[in-house]
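Q&A log
Question type: sequence-to-structure
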Amino acid sequence: MGITVEGLGYYTPQKVLTNFDLEKMVDTSDEWIITRTGIRERRLAEESLVEMAYRASLKALEDASLKPEDIDLIILATLTPDLSFPASACLLQAKLGAESAFAFDISAACSGFLYGLEVAGGMLSSGRVKRVLLVGAERLSQIVDWTDRSTCVLFGDGAGAVLLSGEGEGELLASLMRSDGNYWEILYAERCGHIKMKGKELFKLAVRSMAEVCEEVLQRAGVSVEEVDLVVPHQANIRIVEALAERLGIPMEKIYSNIYRYGNTSAASIPIALCEAKQEGRLKRGDLLLLTAMGGGLTWGASLLRF
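Response status: OK
Response body:
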């Protein structure tokens, strides 16, 4: 289906929490965290989730040379909304002044951006809308237990935004979304509670599940793995990324990762990575782009785009 990325933007908070800062908070070390996760620092938000989403969205609009009134639909993927309701997307719509758009949230944890991309693609291909603002934003620092060394080292805050159009030369060649609620206890947070995770079980499931959907998406599109120009996976753990690359037979040079700067920002990680990949010249028009993620639910998926 035709789907073109017209603009990209991201926002990460100014406050930085390094591994050395964490050494003073819990029984851990910079070496231990880097070796097992690849993370060196993460950002902590003092601003609201909607404010981060707003700043990322403004940058995406500027990148696309568009105005808020050009947006027909706003989808905001998050598991850390400012309010139980209304949807954070509605608050973002009001803040942007996007009066012509309708808005809603998606809760699919770390896969939220890809789930949103699937919905946006369907809406654009149907002709129901012409432009979609898709945002991934998280304030995971609000639900992290800062005394739990197994989880507090992993997560950070941030927002990424993508403006999508049904016109242009871009294309969503194939996509596949999956979920299995039988595994919910592997990664979850109770209402008003902290993140709970079974890391070893999640690692194995993440590598296997993301590899399988990537392989099936490539098969559906009739594309070989060698033809892919860039892979942007969810930034959860560098060891997961390396294991995924090995299983798919893709060199690490073709995989974009910025986890060392931000940690796991859940639904925000892929759009933030897309923005930085483009800024660094690693993503250009016409490239074949493979996206994949896995998160609590469990949810997972993959999408193949002609950028």
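Response note: Residues 199-221 form the longest helix (23 residues).
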